[in-house]
Amino acid sequence: MDFNKFLSKLFGNKSTRDMKAIGPLVEKVKEVYPTIQALSNDELRAKTKELQNKVQHSADDLKEKIEALKAKVEETPLEDRVVIFNQIDKIEKEVLQRIEVALNEIQAEAFAIVKETARRFTENDTIEVTATDFDRELATTKDFVSIEGDKAIYNNHWVAGGNEMKWDMVHYDVQLFGGTVLHQGKIAEMATGEGKTLVATLPVFLNALSGNGVHVVTVNDYLAKRDSEWMGPLYMFHGLSVDCIDKHQPNSDARRRAYRADITFGTNNEFGFDYLRDNMAMSPQDLVQRRHNYAIVDEVDSVLIDDARTPLIISGPVPKGDDQLFEQYQPLVERLVEVQRKLATQLLAEAKTLIASEDKEKQEEGFLQLFRSHKALPKNNPLIKFLSEQGIKAGMLKTEAIYMENNNRRMPEATDPLYFVVDEKMHSCDLTDKGNKWLAEQVKDDALFVLPDITSELSALENDTTLTAEERLLKKDELYSEYAIKSERVHTIQQLLKAYTMFRINEEYVVMDGQVKIVDEQTGRIMDGRRWSDGLHQAVEAKEHVKVEAATQTFATITLQNYFRMYHKLSGMTGTAITEAGELWDIYKLDVVEIPTNRPILRNDMNDRVYKTKREKYAAVIEEIERMRISGRPVLVGTTSVDVSELLSRMLQMRRIPHQVLNAKLHQKEADIVALAGQSTMGRVTIKNADGTTEERECPLGAVTIATNMAGRGTDIKLTAQVKEAGGLAIIGTERHESRRVDRQLRGRAGRQGDPGSSVFFVSLEDNLMRLFASERIAKVMDKLGFKEGDMIEAPIINNSIERAQKKVEENNFGIRKRLLEYDDVMNKQRTLIYEKRRHALMGERIGMDISNMIWDRVVTIISNNDYQGCVEQFLEVMAMEVPFTEAQFSDKRREDLFETSFQAAMTHFKRKMERLVETAYPVIKRVYEEQGEIYENILVPITDGKHVFNIRTNLKEAYDTQAQAVVREFEKNILLHNIDDAWKENLRELDELKKSVQNASYEQKDPLLIFKLESAKIFETMVNKINNSTISTLLRGQIYAPEQTTQVREAAPVQAPKQQYTESKENLDEERSEMAKAAARDTREQVTQPIIKSKQPGRNDPCPCGSGKKFKNCHGRGLV
């Protein structure tokens, strides 16, 4: 017995300990269930209201304290408000903790209510209850509710995802275990078919009772819409509102209402983009999201692992964004790759000849040539085929080890004959001296692609005494400019080389509608809107001769991992998270709990079948498909790329085997294809007997479906009784994925809810994973045993070897993600601070405190960094006031005393300026409101700082009621928002450039991440200083702009929704303000053509469904028809 298994049997494992801890909570639900079951329908709903009131009023005393503190804010001096706001923040956290305690207290009753509601919907076609206003409102828009007098009739069937569905699900103990785990803020790992969607109803219902909102996050909009419609009636029956953000346009009132619902469904991307849009809003009315309270992420591994490091980006055009070099240098790089290809082919031919020789020295030379061919083009098909032959791969690896000794000291001897070197494992492609020389000959310029030694040239400039300071500065600028131009040129060449050598069409990407679209390596789906960063996407576009998109500038960005870390409580569910448990804990502090299956798993997971070549492997796959199909078992064939799925499809067509294909090009048919994958139909086949004769026979034939390994997530493959008798669904994997999680997902398509089934993976030594990590040992075994073509090896030890290789890749990928997270954390800390300041300015409540802090910061900075004369100049320039101390005081007084007296003087000056502004504005506002108040709703108040005129949009009535204080607040808000947005946009651009430039630090034996942290801190400090300087300077100079000829007040034009003119993508005030507003208005939802479904909406003169007796046009249809 395995030692770890022995220890598990002796002491138990994490899974059993988790179940032991959750068991008592589940028993409590089962204890209260009979009491809940005895309630009538109306009493059941009344019980929900009772629990809801208990939770929502559990922290009333704390909420009263918060309101009392808020009431004190206005009468507190600006400089003293920070204490009050800190108290408010602290108490708000206590409120959330108090609500969490209340939810835990009612958990058993709430879970029992959901369980009983599901049972009643399952066992009754209709449920009758006393109608409430909420029921009447539902009846006007939903097909499952009707009103008869004072009764509401709920049906147990409704349309979800475009299909009529009848509720037939009840909660077993397994679901209660899963629901408890989710409520605790953990990840529930549940096998396929165990009802994860049903499990989520328990914690969603419980947490929605708090009124703070619950977000249910899905991987695509089909699942978001389907689940909101499928599970929605269960919640609505108890008076909880449900909506889906993906059904509504961004920035619309409908989407805002969706976020106000008790339960909100949506895709991860849309939740993230709405957060970014909210942080580009110019008015509180434009905000759509509430506080991030509780989120349940479906397929949590896909969202928080696969998509986590990809940034969501809102971007817009940059000046000269079309001036790129990719199209200019694409023909040159294409010729270079062709030259290298010829060299690689020649090296391979020489290697074959020399290795076949009996002379040992020639064999060594042959393996060197083979290694060179491998470094030249590792994905060259003839090379891959030759490496699968007996002893070849082992010989090449031995040669590689020789040249890698002493930290790659001898590697140049091997790579110098090449034009460029490709390293698949490091995902890099670097020009050699020979390659640079070839490029120089082609363009007839030796220095065009060579970066100057900028350090030594700058040093020479500093030491040149013949230059004046002005000339030295000019020379320095020229040097930096030349370096930037050449750097971009070299970067373009490198990215084009990567595009040609590492990225294959129909594997990493497809070309559709004249666009390069990335294929998700995990799911095989097209990732619309996502682009590779750092110019790589433009390089692939140039390679494929499609339009190279213009460069863009980032306005707002966040990664999904940082977005989801903002939630007060986060949980998730999936069938494949245990292999990533370490990462989920390290990054999100999410514990993974394995939930046992409701019925034992009967699936037979067979050993991998390993072949030497892909050709042998695919031939064996086709044979296995045919054998399974004839036995009446449906077959799901898992592939890793479009190319493989199309190759297998052609092979099946040659044998006239009907089948369905699901890949990146056909992903929109996913749900339909996967749903039919578990069926069999009667048909005639020709069968070869043992004696060589053939006969035609009619028998059940299993459906054959070719799909990517993770296709059909969220859609169950249901089997007929006939298929179960034949042995269930047969899973055939055509390649081991680099992640064990993806392989487990494919296996999990079979064996749902105790169904029979089997799974087997066909592997070849030419597969990517085997070629890079696991083939040497297996190749040696196959060589020693004298395997011939078509022979395969199958043993548990081989499975273990492959899984070790997968673990290596997973560890490497985790390292990459952790590294990227560290980079992103730097930006995230800055983003959190800036967005907090921006939200304060937008809402207006804490803007006075922030301005007070800015004034303090400016005072301290000016006094700390200047002599007395500098202080005089800076106080005049920034603070628009005389220096509030003498030169003697500057020399004699303690710095802390100077800070305090200067701050008080600056605050007095600021208050005086704002009072003067109010005194000037109010008489005009009073006259306009009293004489023309019925004409104007909003007016423009012109305010100037002596350089610019700002037209401040203000509500006339509010300005009148507050005696022009509203004008001051709007002035402060507009200036602060404008300065923050302008500086943050520039900061993001500088951080993008910094991230690229710091990679060169590795050549100087420095850590790029450390340099990035240090330099980004300087950039951020500069940005904050810029915001503070420009804001304080403008506010302290602000006065009403009143030229002699201007006597009329101007009405503010109504706010119009901006047109969509900028890009939201995932990266694999004035004109600037309008560009950002256009960007935030773009629709980022998945664009899928939907069938036309007839609206349930009644006609104008039909009776209103709410039961009021009025016509629809005079009741709930008012304004709609």
What's the layout of helices and strands?
Layout: H1 3-11, H2 14-37, H3 41-56, H4 60-73, H5 81-123, E1 126-130, H6 133-139, E2 145-148, E3 151-155, E4 157-160, E5 163-166, H7 173-183, E6 187-189, H8 196-208, E7 214-218, H9 221-236, E8 242-244, H10 253-260, E9 263-267, H11 268-278, E10 294-298, H12 300-306, E11 311-317, H13 326-355, H14 360-376, H15 381-387, H16 392-408, H17 411-415, E12 420-423, E13 428-431, H18 433-443, H19 454-463, H20 469-502, E14 509-512, E15 515-518, H21 536-543, E16 552-559, H22 560-564, E17 569-574, H23 581-588, E18 592-594, E19 604-605, E20 609-611, H24 614-630, E21 635-639, H25 642-654, E22 660-662, H26 670-675, E23 680-688, E24 694-702, E25 704-708, H27 721-726, E26 729-733, H28 740-747, E27 757-764, H29 768-784, H30 796-843, H31 847-865, H32 868-878, H33 887-892, H34 895-932, E28 938-944, E29 949-955, H35 956-961, H36 965-997, H37 1008-1035, E30 1039-1040, E31 1050-1051, E32 1063-1066, H38 1070-1080
Parallel strand pairs: 6-17, 6-18, 7-9, 7-10, 8-9, 10-17, 19-27, 20-27, 21-25, 21-26, 22-25, 26-27
Antiparallel strand pairs: 1-3, 2-3, 4-5, 11-16, 11-32, 12-13, 14-15, 23-24, 28-29, 28-30, 28-31
Helix pairs in contact: 2-5, 2-7, 3-5, 4-5, 5-8, 7-8, 8-9, 13-14, 13-20, 13-21, 14-16, 19-20, 20-21, 29-30, 30-36, 30-37, 31-32, 31-34, 31-37, 36-37
